Protein backbone atom coordinates (compact mmCIF):
# COMPACT_ATOMS: atom_id res chain seq x y z
CA UNK A 1 0.00 0.00 0.00
CA UNK A 2 1.30 3.47 -0.90
CA UNK A 3 1.52 5.90 2.00
CA UNK A 4 0.18 9.37 1.25
CA UNK A 5 -0.90 12.51 3.07
CA UNK A 6 -3.71 14.80 1.93
CA UNK A 7 -2.96 18.53 2.27
CA UNK A 8 -5.87 20.99 2.04
CA UNK A 9 -5.32 24.76 2.28
CA UNK A 10 -8.47 26.55 3.38
CA UNK A 11 -9.92 29.96 4.05
CA UNK A 12 -12.67 28.43 6.16
CA UNK A 13 -15.22 27.83 3.42
CA UNK A 14 -18.25 25.68 4.25
CA UNK A 15 -17.28 23.26 1.47
CA UNK A 16 -14.33 22.03 3.58
CA UNK A 17 -16.57 19.81 5.71
CA UNK A 18 -18.05 18.11 2.65
CA UNK A 19 -14.56 17.48 1.27
CA UNK A 20 -13.32 15.94 4.50
CA UNK A 21 -16.44 13.80 4.84
CA UNK A 22 -15.93 12.49 1.31
CA UNK A 23 -12.32 11.59 2.14
CA UNK A 24 -13.35 9.88 5.35
CA UNK A 25 -16.12 7.77 3.89
CA UNK A 26 -14.75 6.86 0.48
CA UNK A 27 -13.51 3.47 -0.70
CA UNK A 28 -9.86 2.51 -0.78
CA UNK A 29 -6.79 3.05 1.38
CA UNK A 30 -7.09 5.89 3.88
CA UNK A 31 -4.45 8.61 3.89
CA UNK A 32 -1.89 8.40 6.67
CA UNK A 33 -3.05 11.86 7.69
CA UNK A 34 -5.11 14.79 6.48
CA UNK A 35 -3.41 18.14 7.06
CA UNK A 36 -5.73 21.15 6.89
CA UNK A 37 -3.84 24.44 6.67
CA UNK A 38 -5.95 27.38 7.86
CA UNK A 39 -4.74 30.35 5.83
CA UNK A 40 -6.97 33.01 7.35
CA UNK A 41 -5.04 35.99 8.73
CA UNK A 42 -6.92 35.64 11.99
CA UNK A 43 -8.00 32.00 12.31
CA UNK A 44 -11.29 31.35 14.05
CA UNK A 45 -13.29 28.21 14.64
CA UNK A 46 -12.82 25.53 12.01
CA UNK A 47 -15.50 22.87 12.55
CA UNK A 48 -14.30 19.49 11.33
CA UNK A 49 -16.25 16.25 10.97
CA UNK A 50 -15.27 13.23 13.02
CA UNK A 51 -13.17 10.89 10.89
CA UNK A 52 -11.23 7.69 11.43
CA UNK A 53 -8.31 9.29 9.61
CA UNK A 54 -6.23 11.68 11.76
CA UNK A 55 -6.81 15.34 10.86
CA UNK A 56 -4.21 17.92 11.85
CA UNK A 57 -4.80 21.68 11.57
CA UNK A 58 -1.88 24.04 10.88
CA UNK A 59 -1.88 27.84 10.56
CA UNK A 60 -0.15 29.77 7.78
CA UNK A 61 -1.16 33.31 8.70
CA UNK A 62 -2.96 34.42 5.55
CA UNK A 63 0.12 34.28 3.32
CA UNK A 64 -1.72 32.62 0.43
CA UNK A 65 -2.24 29.07 -0.86
CA UNK A 66 1.39 28.60 -1.93
CA UNK A 67 2.62 29.24 1.61
CA UNK A 68 -0.21 27.13 3.05
CA UNK A 69 0.63 24.14 0.86
CA UNK A 70 4.32 24.47 1.74
CA UNK A 71 3.45 24.39 5.43
CA UNK A 72 1.35 21.28 4.83
CA UNK A 73 3.74 19.12 2.82
CA UNK A 74 6.73 20.05 4.97
CA UNK A 75 4.85 18.80 8.04
CA UNK A 76 3.96 15.51 6.34
CA UNK A 77 6.09 12.39 6.62
CA UNK A 78 4.86 10.23 3.73
CA UNK A 79 6.34 9.52 0.31
CA UNK A 80 3.41 11.13 -1.52
CA UNK A 81 1.52 14.37 -0.91
CA UNK A 82 -1.95 14.70 -2.44
CA UNK A 83 -3.09 18.32 -2.68
CA UNK A 84 -6.81 19.10 -2.82
CA UNK A 85 -8.57 22.46 -2.81
CA UNK A 86 -11.16 23.05 -0.11
CA UNK A 87 -14.00 23.50 -2.63
CA UNK A 88 -13.68 20.17 -4.48
CA UNK A 89 -15.43 16.85 -3.86
CA UNK A 90 -13.50 13.61 -4.56
CA UNK A 91 -15.62 10.73 -5.83
CA UNK A 92 -16.29 7.68 -3.64
CA UNK A 93 -13.56 5.63 -5.36
CA UNK A 94 -11.01 8.48 -5.32
CA UNK A 95 -8.65 6.85 -2.80
CA UNK A 96 -8.55 3.48 -4.56
CA UNK A 97 -7.97 5.16 -7.92
CA UNK A 98 -5.28 7.38 -6.42
CA UNK A 99 -3.44 4.27 -5.25
CA UNK A 100 -3.68 2.82 -8.76
CA UNK A 101 -2.44 6.09 -10.26
CA UNK A 102 0.59 6.28 -8.00
CA UNK A 103 1.48 2.58 -8.20
CA UNK A 104 1.66 2.78 -12.00
CA UNK A 105 4.18 5.64 -12.09
CA UNK A 106 7.77 5.18 -13.18
CA UNK A 107 10.61 6.38 -10.98
CA UNK A 108 11.15 9.52 -13.07
CA UNK A 109 7.52 10.66 -12.70
CA UNK A 110 7.20 13.29 -9.99
CA UNK A 111 3.46 13.81 -9.90
CA UNK A 112 0.00 12.68 -10.92
CA UNK A 113 -2.95 14.91 -11.72
CA UNK A 114 -6.53 13.86 -11.10
CA UNK A 115 -9.29 14.36 -13.64
CA UNK A 116 -11.34 17.45 -12.79
CA UNK A 117 -15.04 17.39 -13.65
CA UNK A 118 -17.02 20.63 -13.46
CA UNK A 119 -20.78 19.98 -13.36
CA UNK A 120 -22.70 22.17 -15.78
CA UNK A 121 -25.89 24.12 -15.07
CA UNK A 122 -29.12 22.17 -14.75
CA UNK A 123 -32.37 22.53 -16.64
CA UNK A 124 -30.72 23.20 -20.00
CA UNK A 125 -29.57 26.68 -18.97
CA UNK A 126 -26.48 28.03 -20.67
CA UNK A 127 -23.50 28.56 -18.36
CA UNK A 128 -22.70 32.04 -17.11
CA UNK A 129 -19.37 33.72 -17.75
CA UNK A 130 -18.09 32.68 -14.32
CA UNK A 131 -19.31 29.11 -14.78
CA UNK A 132 -17.52 28.89 -18.14
CA UNK A 133 -14.38 30.14 -16.45
CA UNK A 134 -14.62 27.35 -13.86
CA UNK A 135 -15.28 24.78 -16.60
CA UNK A 136 -11.82 25.60 -17.98
CA UNK A 137 -10.33 23.78 -14.98
CA UNK A 138 -11.36 20.48 -16.56
CA UNK A 139 -8.68 20.88 -19.24
CA UNK A 140 -6.09 22.83 -17.24
CA UNK A 141 -2.72 21.19 -16.68
CA UNK A 142 -1.17 20.32 -13.31
CA UNK A 143 -3.61 22.29 -11.16
CA UNK A 144 -3.54 21.58 -7.43
CA UNK A 145 -7.31 21.19 -7.22
CA UNK A 146 -6.21 17.52 -7.32
CA UNK A 147 -2.47 16.96 -7.74
CA UNK A 148 -0.17 14.46 -6.03
CA UNK A 149 3.60 14.96 -5.82
CA UNK A 150 6.50 12.98 -4.46
CA UNK A 151 7.63 14.65 -1.27
CA UNK A 152 11.33 14.39 -2.14
CA UNK A 153 10.69 16.18 -5.43
CA UNK A 154 8.91 19.01 -3.62
CA UNK A 155 11.90 19.26 -1.30
CA UNK A 156 14.33 19.19 -4.24
CA UNK A 157 12.69 22.12 -6.04
CA UNK A 158 11.89 24.09 -2.89
CA UNK A 159 8.12 23.63 -3.02
CA UNK A 160 5.70 26.33 -4.12
CA UNK A 161 6.98 29.83 -4.82
CA UNK A 162 5.40 31.95 -2.10
CA UNK A 163 5.70 35.11 -4.20
CA UNK A 164 2.42 33.97 -5.80
CA UNK A 165 -0.12 35.33 -3.28
CA UNK A 166 -3.28 33.94 -4.88
CA UNK A 167 -4.64 30.61 -6.05
CA UNK A 168 -3.40 31.43 -9.53
CA UNK A 169 -0.28 30.31 -11.44
CA UNK A 170 1.46 28.98 -8.31
CA UNK A 171 0.62 25.42 -9.38
CA UNK A 172 1.71 25.96 -13.00
CA UNK A 173 4.95 27.51 -11.77
CA UNK A 174 5.71 24.47 -9.60
CA UNK A 175 4.90 22.02 -12.40
CA UNK A 176 7.11 23.88 -14.85
CA UNK A 177 10.06 23.94 -12.42
CA UNK A 178 9.60 20.22 -11.73
CA UNK A 179 9.63 19.44 -15.44
CA UNK A 180 12.62 21.68 -16.10
CA UNK A 181 14.46 19.81 -13.37
CA UNK A 182 14.08 16.59 -15.37
CA UNK A 183 10.99 14.88 -13.95
CA UNK A 184 7.80 13.96 -15.76
CA UNK A 185 4.17 14.53 -14.77
CA UNK A 186 1.25 12.31 -15.75
CA UNK A 187 -2.54 12.35 -15.59
CA UNK A 188 -4.29 9.71 -13.51
CA UNK A 189 -7.69 8.04 -13.68
CA UNK A 190 -9.14 9.32 -10.39
CA UNK A 191 -11.93 11.90 -10.60
CA UNK A 192 -12.65 14.97 -8.51
CA UNK A 193 -15.73 17.16 -8.84
CA UNK A 194 -15.23 20.92 -8.83
CA UNK A 195 -18.50 22.86 -8.49
CA UNK A 196 -18.83 26.01 -10.55
CA UNK A 197 -17.64 29.13 -8.81
CA UNK A 198 -20.15 31.76 -7.77
CA UNK A 199 -19.27 35.37 -7.11
CA UNK A 200 -20.74 38.81 -6.95
CA UNK A 201 -21.36 41.26 -9.75
CA UNK A 202 -17.69 42.28 -9.99
CA UNK A 203 -16.06 38.85 -9.52
CA UNK A 204 -14.59 38.91 -13.03
CA UNK A 205 -13.07 42.33 -12.37
CA UNK A 206 -11.47 41.17 -9.14
CA UNK A 207 -10.05 38.17 -11.00
CA UNK A 208 -7.86 40.52 -13.05
CA UNK A 209 -5.44 40.64 -10.13
CA UNK A 210 -4.01 37.48 -11.63
CA UNK A 211 -2.37 39.60 -14.32
CA UNK A 212 0.23 40.58 -11.72
CA UNK A 213 1.05 36.88 -11.29
CA UNK A 214 1.43 36.57 -15.06
CA UNK A 215 4.16 39.20 -14.83
CA UNK A 216 6.05 36.98 -12.39
CA UNK A 217 5.65 33.98 -14.71
CA UNK A 218 7.11 35.99 -17.59
CA UNK A 219 9.96 37.15 -15.40
CA UNK A 220 10.82 33.60 -14.34
CA UNK A 221 10.34 31.71 -17.61
CA UNK A 222 10.51 34.28 -20.38
CA UNK A 223 7.97 35.26 -23.06
CA UNK A 224 7.31 31.61 -23.89
CA UNK A 225 5.80 30.85 -20.48
CA UNK A 226 2.28 30.57 -21.87
CA UNK A 227 3.32 27.91 -24.37
CA UNK A 228 5.28 26.03 -21.70
CA UNK A 229 2.24 25.92 -19.39
CA UNK A 230 -0.47 25.58 -22.08
CA UNK A 231 -2.09 28.72 -20.67
CA UNK A 232 -3.44 29.97 -24.00
CA UNK A 233 -2.74 33.33 -25.64
CA UNK A 234 -4.60 35.59 -23.21
CA UNK A 235 -6.17 38.98 -24.02
CA UNK A 236 -3.67 41.39 -22.52
CA UNK A 237 -2.76 42.80 -25.94
CA UNK A 238 -6.38 43.63 -26.77
CA UNK A 239 -7.00 44.96 -23.26
CA UNK A 240 -3.99 47.25 -23.66
CA UNK A 241 -5.24 48.51 -27.03
CA UNK A 242 -8.72 49.08 -25.59
CA UNK A 243 -7.34 50.99 -22.63
CA UNK A 244 -5.06 53.15 -24.77
CA UNK A 245 -7.96 53.95 -27.12
CA UNK A 246 -10.14 55.04 -24.21
CA UNK A 247 -7.37 57.18 -22.71
CA UNK A 248 -6.64 58.75 -26.09
CA UNK A 249 -10.32 59.61 -26.57
CA UNK A 250 -10.47 61.29 -23.15
CA UNK A 251 -7.20 63.16 -23.70
CA UNK A 252 -8.22 64.45 -27.13
CA UNK A 253 -11.63 65.48 -25.83
CA UNK A 254 -10.00 67.38 -22.96
CA UNK A 255 -7.69 69.08 -25.48
CA UNK A 256 -10.73 70.04 -27.61
CA UNK A 257 -9.62 67.97 -30.58
CA UNK A 258 -12.96 66.45 -31.61
CA UNK A 259 -11.86 64.52 -34.69
CA UNK A 260 -9.06 62.48 -33.03
CA UNK A 261 -11.32 62.06 -29.99
CA UNK A 262 -14.07 60.62 -32.21
CA UNK A 263 -11.71 58.17 -33.94
CA UNK A 264 -10.23 57.01 -30.64
CA UNK A 265 -13.72 56.74 -29.12
CA UNK A 266 -14.96 54.63 -32.01
CA UNK A 267 -11.94 52.32 -31.62
CA UNK A 268 -12.60 51.99 -27.89
CA UNK A 269 -16.30 51.31 -28.45
CA UNK A 270 -15.61 48.67 -31.11
CA UNK A 271 -13.04 46.83 -29.00
CA UNK A 272 -15.26 46.95 -25.91
CA UNK A 273 -18.30 45.75 -27.87
CA UNK A 274 -16.30 42.84 -29.33
CA UNK A 275 -15.17 41.80 -25.84
CA UNK A 276 -18.67 42.08 -24.40
CA UNK A 277 -20.25 40.09 -27.23
CA UNK A 278 -17.61 37.37 -26.89
CA UNK A 279 -18.74 36.96 -23.28
CA UNK A 280 -22.50 37.44 -23.84
CA UNK A 281 -23.18 35.16 -26.81
CA UNK A 282 -22.37 31.80 -25.11
CA UNK A 283 -24.25 32.80 -21.94
CA UNK A 284 -27.84 32.69 -20.69
CA UNK A 285 -28.68 36.30 -21.71
CA UNK A 286 -30.75 37.02 -18.64
CA UNK A 287 -31.12 40.70 -17.71
CA UNK A 288 -28.75 40.26 -14.77
CA UNK A 289 -26.09 38.52 -16.88
CA UNK A 290 -26.40 41.07 -19.68
CA UNK A 291 -25.96 43.95 -17.26
CA UNK A 292 -23.00 42.25 -15.60
CA UNK A 293 -21.29 41.58 -18.94
CA UNK A 294 -21.86 45.13 -20.18
CA UNK A 295 -20.47 46.83 -17.08
CA UNK A 296 -17.56 44.49 -16.42
CA UNK A 297 -16.50 44.45 -20.08
CA UNK A 298 -15.89 48.19 -19.74
CA UNK A 299 -13.96 47.80 -16.49
CA UNK A 300 -11.87 44.70 -17.15
CA UNK A 301 -9.41 46.06 -19.78
CA UNK A 302 -8.05 49.00 -17.73
CA UNK A 303 -8.07 46.96 -14.51
CA UNK A 304 -6.18 44.12 -16.20
CA UNK A 305 -3.58 46.53 -17.61
CA UNK A 306 -3.16 48.26 -14.25
CA UNK A 307 -2.54 44.97 -12.44
CA UNK A 308 -0.11 43.82 -15.11
CA UNK A 309 1.86 47.08 -14.89
CA UNK A 310 1.95 46.81 -11.11
CA UNK A 311 3.18 43.23 -11.40
CA UNK A 312 5.89 44.16 -13.92
CA UNK A 313 7.11 46.98 -11.68
CA UNK A 314 7.18 44.68 -8.68
CA UNK A 315 9.17 41.88 -10.34
CA UNK A 316 11.61 44.34 -11.93
CA UNK A 317 12.24 46.17 -8.69
CA UNK A 318 15.82 45.61 -7.55
CA UNK A 319 15.88 42.51 -5.42
CA UNK A 320 17.31 42.70 -1.91
CA UNK A 321 20.85 41.59 -1.26
CA UNK A 322 21.37 37.85 -1.10
CA UNK A 323 21.24 36.28 2.33
CA UNK A 324 23.63 33.56 1.13
CA UNK A 325 25.86 33.12 -1.92
CA UNK A 326 26.49 29.66 -3.39
CA UNK A 327 29.39 29.09 -5.77
CA UNK A 328 30.09 26.43 -8.34
CA UNK A 329 33.63 25.13 -7.76
CA UNK A 330 35.40 24.43 -11.06
CA UNK A 331 35.98 27.41 -13.36
CA UNK A 332 34.13 29.63 -10.87
CA UNK A 333 36.23 29.55 -7.69
CA UNK A 334 39.19 27.56 -9.02
CA UNK A 335 40.52 26.87 -12.50
CA UNK A 336 39.03 23.72 -13.97
CA UNK A 337 41.29 20.66 -13.93
CA UNK A 338 39.11 17.86 -15.32
CA UNK A 339 38.56 15.15 -12.69
CA UNK A 340 41.21 16.70 -10.48
CA UNK A 341 42.51 14.29 -7.83
CA UNK A 342 45.63 16.27 -6.90
CA UNK A 343 45.35 19.09 -4.33
CA UNK A 344 48.54 20.65 -5.67
CA UNK A 345 46.77 21.46 -8.95
CA UNK A 346 44.15 23.66 -7.26
CA UNK A 347 44.51 27.26 -8.48
CA UNK A 348 41.97 29.95 -7.45
CA UNK A 349 40.58 32.20 -10.17
CA UNK A 350 41.58 35.88 -9.96
CA UNK A 351 39.61 37.80 -7.34
CA UNK A 352 38.10 34.74 -5.62
CA UNK A 353 39.94 35.19 -2.34
CA UNK A 354 39.05 38.88 -2.10
CA UNK A 355 35.32 38.58 -2.81
CA UNK A 356 35.00 35.68 -0.38
CA UNK A 357 36.82 37.65 2.29
CA UNK A 358 34.46 40.58 1.82
CA UNK A 359 31.36 38.37 1.90
CA UNK A 360 32.47 36.74 5.13
CA UNK A 361 33.33 40.13 6.63
CA UNK A 362 29.79 41.29 5.76
CA UNK A 363 28.32 38.27 7.54
CA UNK A 364 27.01 36.65 4.34
CA UNK A 365 27.19 32.82 4.45
CA UNK A 366 28.99 31.25 1.49
CA UNK A 367 28.74 27.70 0.21
CA UNK A 368 29.79 25.46 -2.65
CA UNK A 369 27.44 23.49 -4.93
CA UNK A 370 29.43 21.25 -7.26
CA UNK A 371 28.94 18.28 -9.58
CA UNK A 372 31.80 15.79 -9.21
CA UNK A 373 30.84 12.81 -11.36
CA UNK A 374 34.46 11.64 -11.42
CA UNK A 375 33.69 9.69 -8.25
CA UNK A 376 30.93 7.69 -9.93
CA UNK A 377 33.11 7.18 -12.98
CA UNK A 378 35.94 5.80 -10.87
CA UNK A 379 38.30 8.63 -11.86
CA UNK A 380 38.47 10.13 -8.35
CA UNK A 381 38.18 8.43 -4.99
CA UNK A 382 36.06 10.01 -2.24
CA UNK A 383 39.26 10.60 -0.23
CA UNK A 384 40.89 12.38 -3.18
CA UNK A 385 37.80 14.56 -3.63
CA UNK A 386 37.88 15.46 0.07
CA UNK A 387 41.58 16.35 -0.19
CA UNK A 388 40.98 18.64 -3.18
CA UNK A 389 38.07 20.37 -1.42
CA UNK A 390 40.20 20.78 1.70
CA UNK A 391 42.86 22.48 -0.45
CA UNK A 392 40.21 24.85 -1.83
CA UNK A 393 39.34 25.85 1.73
CA UNK A 394 43.01 26.17 2.63
CA UNK A 395 43.48 28.67 -0.19
CA UNK A 396 40.12 30.47 -0.08
CA UNK A 397 38.93 30.11 3.49
CA UNK A 398 36.12 28.07 5.06
CA UNK A 399 32.73 27.57 3.44
CA UNK A 400 29.60 27.28 5.56
CA UNK A 401 28.38 24.32 3.50
CA UNK A 402 29.69 21.98 0.82
CA UNK A 403 27.03 20.29 -1.28
CA UNK A 404 28.62 17.90 -3.77
CA UNK A 405 26.93 15.49 -6.19
CA UNK A 406 29.16 12.48 -6.88
CA UNK A 407 26.66 10.78 -9.21
CA UNK A 408 26.99 10.23 -12.94
CA UNK A 409 24.58 11.86 -15.38
CA UNK A 410 22.55 8.67 -15.86
CA UNK A 411 22.22 7.78 -12.17
CA UNK A 412 18.85 9.54 -11.85
CA UNK A 413 19.70 11.42 -8.66
CA UNK A 414 17.88 14.53 -7.44
CA UNK A 415 21.02 16.53 -6.77
CA UNK A 416 23.09 16.73 -9.95
CA UNK A 417 22.84 20.17 -11.53
CA UNK A 418 20.74 21.27 -13.43
CA UNK A 419 18.45 19.59 -10.89
CA UNK A 420 17.91 21.76 -7.82
CA UNK A 421 18.88 19.35 -5.04
CA UNK A 422 22.30 20.84 -4.30
CA UNK A 423 20.88 24.36 -4.07
CA UNK A 424 17.94 23.45 -1.85
CA UNK A 425 20.15 21.37 0.44
CA UNK A 426 22.65 24.21 0.72
CA UNK A 427 19.87 26.68 1.60
CA UNK A 428 18.55 24.29 4.24
CA UNK A 429 22.04 23.86 5.72
CA UNK A 430 22.47 27.64 5.88
CA UNK A 431 19.04 28.24 7.40
CA UNK A 432 17.76 30.44 4.55
CA UNK A 433 15.13 30.07 1.86
CA UNK A 434 16.31 29.11 -1.64
CA UNK A 435 14.79 32.34 -3.01
CA UNK A 436 17.12 34.29 -0.71
CA UNK A 437 20.21 32.65 -2.23
CA UNK A 438 22.24 33.58 -5.30
CA UNK A 439 24.05 30.86 -7.24
CA UNK A 440 27.17 31.92 -9.14
CA UNK A 441 28.49 29.58 -11.83
CA UNK A 442 29.98 29.36 -15.28
CA UNK A 443 27.58 27.18 -17.29
CA UNK A 444 23.88 26.88 -17.99
CA UNK A 445 23.42 23.99 -15.57
CA UNK A 446 24.29 26.32 -12.69
CA UNK A 447 21.65 28.82 -13.81
CA UNK A 448 19.03 26.11 -14.40
CA UNK A 449 19.65 24.54 -10.98
CA UNK A 450 19.17 27.92 -9.33
CA UNK A 451 15.96 28.61 -11.23
CA UNK A 452 14.58 25.15 -10.48
CA UNK A 453 15.19 25.77 -6.77
CA UNK A 454 13.68 29.25 -6.87
CA UNK A 455 17.05 30.96 -6.29
CA UNK A 456 18.66 33.77 -8.28
CA UNK A 457 21.58 33.07 -10.58
CA UNK A 458 24.54 34.98 -11.99
CA UNK A 459 26.55 33.50 -14.86
CA UNK A 460 30.27 34.28 -15.16
CA UNK A 461 31.14 32.98 -18.64
CA UNK A 462 34.43 31.30 -19.46
CA UNK A 463 35.71 30.14 -22.87
CA UNK A 464 33.83 26.84 -22.40
CA UNK A 465 30.47 28.56 -21.73
CA UNK A 466 28.25 28.09 -24.78
CA UNK A 467 26.81 31.22 -26.46
CA UNK A 468 23.29 29.84 -26.04
CA UNK A 469 23.87 29.56 -22.28
CA UNK A 470 24.99 33.18 -22.12
CA UNK A 471 21.98 34.34 -24.15
CA UNK A 472 19.60 32.38 -21.90
CA UNK A 473 21.22 33.82 -18.78
CA UNK A 474 20.89 37.37 -20.11
CA UNK A 475 17.17 36.74 -20.54
CA UNK A 476 16.37 34.70 -17.43
CA UNK A 477 19.13 35.54 -14.93
CA UNK A 478 22.14 37.88 -14.86
CA UNK A 479 25.57 37.82 -16.46
CA UNK A 480 28.79 39.26 -15.04
CA UNK A 481 32.25 39.68 -16.53
CA UNK A 482 34.10 38.38 -13.49
CA UNK A 483 33.58 37.02 -10.00
CA UNK A 484 33.64 40.45 -8.35
CA UNK A 485 30.95 41.69 -10.71
CA UNK A 486 28.84 38.59 -10.02
CA UNK A 487 29.02 39.10 -6.27
CA UNK A 488 28.18 42.77 -6.81
CA UNK A 489 25.00 41.77 -8.62
CA UNK A 490 24.19 39.28 -5.89
CA UNK A 491 24.57 41.94 -3.22
CA UNK A 492 22.78 44.68 -5.19
CA UNK A 493 25.94 46.70 -5.72
CA UNK A 494 27.73 46.61 -9.06
CA UNK A 495 30.75 48.30 -7.50
CA UNK A 496 31.26 45.50 -4.96
UniProtKB/TrEMBL annotation:
<keyword id="KW-0119">Carbohydrate metabolism</keyword>
<keyword id="KW-0378">Hydrolase</keyword>
<dbReference type="InterPro" id="IPR006543">
    <property type="entry name" value="Histidinol-phos"/>
</dbReference>
<comment type="similarity">
    <text>Belongs to the GmhB family.</text>
</comment>
<dbReference type="Pfam" id="PF13242">
    <property type="entry name" value="Hydrolase_like"/>
</dbReference>
<dbReference type="InterPro" id="IPR036412">
    <property type="entry name" value="HAD-like_sf"/>
</dbReference>
<dbReference type="InterPro" id="IPR004446">
    <property type="entry name" value="Heptose_bisP_phosphatase"/>
</dbReference>
<dbReference type="InterPro" id="IPR006549">
    <property type="entry name" value="HAD-SF_hydro_IIIA"/>
</dbReference>
<keyword id="KW-0479">Metal-binding</keyword>
<dbReference type="InterPro" id="IPR029044">
    <property type="entry name" value="Nucleotide-diphossugar_trans"/>
</dbReference>
<dbReference type="InterPro" id="IPR006439">
    <property type="entry name" value="HAD-SF_hydro_IA"/>
</dbReference>
<dbReference type="InterPro" id="IPR001173">
    <property type="entry name" value="Glyco_trans_2-like"/>
</dbReference>
<dbReference type="Pfam" id="PF00535">
    <property type="entry name" value="Glycos_transf_2"/>
</dbReference>
<feature type="domain" description="Glycosyltransferase 2-like">
    <location>
        <begin position="5"/>
        <end position="126"/>
    </location>
</feature>
<keyword id="KW-0963">Cytoplasm</keyword>
<protein>
    <recommendedName>
        <fullName>D,D-heptose 1,7-bisphosphate phosphatase</fullName>
    </recommendedName>
</protein>
<dbReference type="InterPro" id="IPR023214">
    <property type="entry name" value="HAD_sf"/>
</dbReference>
